[in-house]
Design brief:
The protein is globular. By secondary structure, it is an all-alpha fold. About 80% of the residues lie in helices and about 0% in strands. The protein has two domains: about 55 residues, no CATH class; about 70 residues, AhpD-like. The longest helix has 19 residues. α4 runs parallel beside α6. It is built from seven helices and no strands.
Length: about 120
């Protein structure tokens, strides 16, 4: 594990997903699960999210669309909350979801809108 990338990723991950969520994920990981926590934190967050080419806000919208396409409800809800933390408006998230609906299918879009509504409610939006 690259400790520098892990620490950089940990900082980015906490900024987007919230410190409490990330700390809980890491604290609840046993030796088996810690392997994926380290991998995700180092590569996903440390290597990719911290690249200078895109702002966090743009990366959040991209993730929302991809997670809609992949039908990953749990991750979608987490990333909608992250998008809110990154400054995305309800309108921007809605537009991203409408775009995804056209290319991923109406059932995926309907589910994504439902999940986003729940995330908005939990984040007082």
């Amino acid at each position: 594990m690259n400790k520098e990338l892990f620490e950089k990723g940990l900082e980015a991950r906490k900024k987007v997903l919230g410190e409490a969520y990330v700390n809980k994920s890491i604290e609840n990981a046993d030796a088996f699960a810690m392997q994926i926590q380290e991998l995700v934190t180092q590569y996903c967050w440390g290597e990719i999210w911290t690249r200078p080419g895109l702002e966090f806000k743009t990366r959040s919208l991209l993730n929302i669309v991809m997670l809609t396409a992949l039908n990953r409800a749990h991750e979608l809800k987490i990333h909608v909350a992250g998008a809110i933390r990154n400054g995305c408006t309800k309108e921007e998230i809605s537009e991203a979801l409408l775009q995804a609906t056209i290319y991923c299918g109406v059932p995926a879009g309907v589910e994504a809108f439902r999940i986003a509504r729940d995330a908005f409610a939990e984040n007082n939006m």
